[in-house]
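Example for tutorial group B:
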Protein backbone atom coordinates (compact mmCIF):
# COMPACT_ATOMS: atom_id res chain seq x y z
CA UNK A 1 0.00 0.00 0.00
CA UNK A 2 2.88 2.33 0.80
CA UNK A 3 4.36 1.71 -2.64
CA UNK A 4 1.11 2.55 -4.38
CA UNK A 5 0.77 5.70 -2.30
CA UNK A 6 4.40 6.69 -3.04
CA UNK A 7 3.83 6.19 -6.78
CA UNK A 8 0.67 8.31 -6.62
CA UNK A 9 2.53 11.11 -4.80
CA UNK A 10 5.38 10.97 -7.36
CA UNK A 11 2.88 11.06 -10.24
CA UNK A 12 1.12 14.04 -8.71
CA UNK A 13 4.44 15.81 -8.28
CA UNK A 14 5.31 15.17 -11.93
CA UNK A 15 1.89 16.40 -13.01
CA UNK A 16 2.29 19.58 -10.96
CA UNK A 17 5.80 20.13 -12.33
CA UNK A 18 4.63 19.75 -15.94
CA UNK A 19 1.71 22.13 -15.32
CA UNK A 20 4.11 24.67 -13.82
CA UNK A 21 6.46 24.28 -16.79
CA UNK A 22 3.62 24.95 -19.22
CA UNK A 23 2.56 27.97 -17.17
CA UNK A 24 5.94 29.66 -17.68
CA UNK A 25 7.29 28.97 -14.21
CA UNK A 26 10.62 27.23 -13.87
CA UNK A 27 10.78 24.69 -11.07
CA UNK A 28 14.01 24.55 -9.15
CA UNK A 29 14.52 20.88 -8.36
CA UNK A 30 17.45 21.43 -6.00
CA UNK A 31 15.64 24.02 -3.92
CA UNK A 32 12.13 22.73 -4.26
CA UNK A 33 10.55 26.20 -4.57
CA UNK A 34 9.18 27.57 -7.84
CA UNK A 35 10.84 30.63 -9.33
CA UNK A 36 9.26 33.12 -11.72
CA UNK A 37 10.87 33.51 -15.15
CA UNK A 38 12.13 37.08 -15.46
CA UNK A 39 12.99 37.29 -19.20
CA UNK A 40 12.04 35.25 -22.23
CA UNK A 41 13.36 35.32 -25.76
CA UNK A 42 11.36 37.21 -28.36
CA UNK A 43 8.57 35.03 -29.76
CA UNK A 44 9.31 36.05 -33.37
CA UNK A 45 12.78 36.45 -34.86
CA UNK A 46 13.23 39.78 -36.58
CA UNK A 47 16.49 40.29 -38.49
CA UNK A 48 18.40 43.51 -38.13
CA UNK A 49 17.45 46.22 -40.60
CA UNK A 50 19.56 46.38 -43.76
CA UNK A 51 22.14 49.13 -43.82
CA UNK A 52 23.06 50.27 -47.30
CA UNK A 53 26.56 51.60 -47.89
CA UNK A 54 27.25 53.78 -50.92
CA UNK A 55 29.17 52.05 -53.70
CA UNK A 56 32.88 52.81 -53.93
CA UNK A 57 34.09 55.23 -56.55
CA UNK A 58 35.02 53.65 -59.90
CA UNK A 59 38.68 52.88 -60.38
CA UNK A 60 40.38 54.98 -63.03
CA UNK A 61 42.52 52.83 -65.30
CA UNK A 62 45.32 54.11 -67.48
CA UNK A 63 44.40 54.59 -71.13
CA UNK A 64 45.31 51.85 -73.58
CA UNK A 65 48.66 52.34 -75.29
CA UNK A 66 48.36 53.76 -78.76
CA UNK A 67 50.35 51.31 -80.86
CA UNK A 68 48.71 49.85 -83.91
CA UNK A 69 50.10 46.97 -85.95
CA UNK A 70 49.95 47.27 -89.73
CA UNK A 71 46.78 45.93 -91.28
CA UNK A 72 47.07 42.30 -92.35
CA UNK A 73 45.37 40.96 -95.44
CA UNK A 74 42.27 38.92 -94.70
CA UNK A 75 42.50 35.45 -96.21
CA UNK A 76 39.20 33.66 -96.69
CA UNK A 77 39.71 29.93 -97.03
CA UNK A 78 36.93 27.53 -97.93
CA UNK A 79 35.57 25.47 -95.09
CA UNK A 80 36.46 21.80 -95.48
CA UNK A 81 33.46 19.68 -96.31
CA UNK A 82 32.83 16.96 -93.75
CA UNK A 83 30.24 14.34 -94.31
CA UNK A 84 28.30 12.78 -91.49
CA UNK A 85 29.74 9.34 -90.78
CA UNK A 86 27.43 6.41 -91.24
CA UNK A 87 26.95 5.16 -87.71
CA UNK A 88 25.03 2.10 -88.83
CA UNK A 89 28.22 0.60 -90.23
CA UNK A 90 29.77 0.73 -86.75
CA UNK A 91 27.08 -1.43 -85.21
CA UNK A 92 26.48 -3.73 -88.17
CA UNK A 93 29.79 -4.91 -89.66
CA UNK A 94 28.18 -6.29 -92.82
CA UNK A 95 26.18 -3.17 -93.58
CA UNK A 96 26.86 -1.18 -96.77
CA UNK A 97 24.24 1.33 -97.90
CA UNK A 98 25.02 1.02 -101.61
CA UNK A 99 23.67 -2.47 -102.10
CA UNK A 100 21.41 -3.11 -105.04
CA UNK A 101 18.68 -5.70 -104.93
CA UNK A 102 20.60 -7.92 -107.37
CA UNK A 103 23.66 -7.93 -105.11
CA UNK A 104 21.73 -8.91 -102.01
CA UNK A 105 22.08 -12.68 -102.43
CA UNK A 106 25.84 -12.56 -102.93
CA UNK A 107 26.36 -10.19 -100.05
CA UNK A 108 24.13 -12.29 -97.84
CA UNK A 109 26.15 -15.38 -98.68
CA UNK A 110 29.41 -13.65 -97.81
CA UNK A 111 27.95 -12.33 -94.59
CA UNK A 112 26.74 -15.81 -93.61
CA UNK A 113 30.21 -17.22 -94.27
CA UNK A 114 31.80 -14.56 -92.09
CA UNK A 115 29.28 -15.09 -89.34
CA UNK A 116 29.74 -18.86 -89.45
CA UNK A 117 33.51 -18.46 -89.23
CA UNK A 118 33.15 -16.02 -86.37
CA UNK A 119 30.86 -18.30 -84.40
CA UNK A 120 33.07 -21.31 -85.03
CA UNK A 121 36.25 -19.59 -83.90
CA UNK A 122 37.30 -18.54 -87.37
CA UNK A 123 38.72 -15.32 -85.98
CA UNK A 124 40.71 -17.06 -83.24
CA UNK A 125 39.02 -15.36 -80.33
CA UNK A 126 38.83 -18.73 -78.54
CA UNK A 127 35.21 -18.42 -77.53
CA UNK A 128 34.07 -21.57 -79.23
CA UNK A 129 30.88 -22.27 -81.14
CA UNK A 130 27.52 -20.85 -80.22
CA UNK A 131 25.89 -17.46 -80.06
CA UNK A 132 27.82 -14.55 -78.64
CA UNK A 133 26.00 -11.31 -78.07
CA UNK A 134 29.01 -9.16 -77.37
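The residue assignment follows.
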Amino acid sequence: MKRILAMAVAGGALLAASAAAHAGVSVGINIGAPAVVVAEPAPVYRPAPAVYVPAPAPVAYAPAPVAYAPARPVVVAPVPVRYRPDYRADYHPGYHPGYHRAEYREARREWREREWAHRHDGHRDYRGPGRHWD
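The helical segments are 2-22, 88-91, 104-119. Compare this with the pattern of hydrophobic and polar residues in the output above.
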